Amino acid sequence: MNQPGNPGEVIRTVQNQLECDLYLGGYWLPIGKLKPAVKMPVRPPAAPAGSPARAVSQERIMSDAEPRKEKQKRLDDLVRRMGSCCRCSLAQTRLHLVPGEGNPCARIVFVGEAPGASEDEQGRPFVGRAGQLLTNIIEAMGLRRQEVYICNILKCRPPENRDPQANEIAACIEYLYEQLRIIEPEMIVALGAHAAKTLLNSTAAIGELRGRVHAYYPEPLSKPIKLVATYHPAYLLRNYSPDNRRRVWHDMQMVLKELGLPVPRGKQE
Ligand code: SF4
Q: What is the number of the ligand 1 atom nearest to the C-alpha of 82?
């Protein structure tokens, strides 16, 4: 076991922190190097309103299955129902409900496990340090956070950020199912083991579940939704390594390719 103060461990911790900070600051690190070589892509300038380019840009992120306003209304109604939820004991300890946010017609829904302290304070998903990393990953994909939908399996924070319990997941999961039925995404990105195992009804480790495209069935006879599992951003922060970063980026490239979206230039590793 590494002891605090061990010089090798201290250097490694500082290096991990620096690499994560560079990553969070908008740099995409080349494998094995500390110095940033490629600036993460900033969203390309928006095409003028009414132009064909703007229409294509909107089309690639919007589903036309149902008008956006109608879906937003159904999501708002669902949030109102969640607001008075006492199905599990987390209702007694939460500061705020964290239902999820984003585009009600999103093609991609990112699903994490549960809100943390920052999320509980703000009532918004993925707004802490891990959330900033998720935002950077989404932008590295050439997308914007508001183009996708982001939520968690649990809508209330487990005390001390402990793992979600089976009874809490069982009590809360219907809200996620309802969100997915309303949004009708083409792709779900399960962030971390809890989200992946719950949605895929699997006991396999996240390392086994990531790296391929799964089929998720919202209802027994319904059309499947593609699902890609990857490491949770918080795990990536705690266990930063070029290999883990490369694995997550590989999974995100798979998402883009499955949706027929371009992989941003300079990122096709
Ligand atoms: S975690 Fe889910 S089931 Fe539990 S109180 Fe919150 S909304 Fe209800």
A: 7
* CB contact set of 196 (below 8 Å; sequence gap of 6+): 190, 202, 206, 209, 210, 229
Residue-wise pLDDT tens digits, 50-83? 544 444 444 444 555 558 999 999 999 999 999 9
Q: Domain 68-258: give its CATH superfamily.
A: Uracil-DNA glycosylase-like domain (3.40.470.10)
- Using the mean position of ligand 1's atoms as its centre, give its distance from the Cα of residue 87 in Å: 6
Residue to mutate, 155, 176, 194, ligand 1, most ligand atoms under 8 Å from C-beta: 155
Task: Name every protein residue with a CB atom under 6 angstroms from any ligand 1 atom.
Answer: 82, 85-88, 90-91, 154-156, 168, 171-172
> How is the chain split into domains, by residue range?
1-40, 68-258
pTM (whole model) above 0.85: no
CA distance 100 to 153: 10
Closest-CA residue, ligand 1 atom 4, reads 88
| Beta carbons of 228 and 213 less than 8 angstroms apart | yes
Cβ pair 178, 71 in contact under 8 A:
no
Closest C-alpha to ligand 1, atom 3: 172
Residue 143 has a pLDDT of: 98
Q: Which residue's alpha carbon is at the smallest distance from atom 6 of ligand 1?
A: 156
CA distances for 202 relative to 144, 198, 244, angstroms: 31, 7, 22
Report pLDDT digits (tens) over 100-124. Answer: 999 999 999 999 999 999 999 999 9
